[in-house]
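This follows on from our talk about sequence and fold. I would like you to pick a protein and set down its sequence and fold. Go ahead and set the record down below:
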Amino acid sequence: MGEYIKVTGVDDIPIGGIKAFELKHHRFVICHNDDGFFALADECTHDNAPISTGRLDDNIIVCPRHGAKFDIRTGEVKAPPAIVPLDTYQLKIENNDIYVFID
């Protein structure tokens, strides 16, 4: 049974920022853009490299190794070489704290 776990504060990830976390054997990244905060698996589906060292371009995170692109809102692949979408995580914000749902 999953639960929401407090991860960080909203002020810890500025707009345009990416920050990696690991909780209960889940590696994920939280991205912050003008649309809000989004949580995704921190592992490119092309070669398992962390995407947390990539760059954020509006709603797209770009893997630093081979340039695969993913939509941070849905995990959908937007450019190869990846063909499998990233897993996404539900998150919520309460009292300026970010919580991520972990199974």
About this structure: The chain has a mean pLDDT of 96. The chain has one domain: 3-102. The CA atoms of residues 22 and 28 lie 6 Å apart. The longest strand covers residues 26-33.
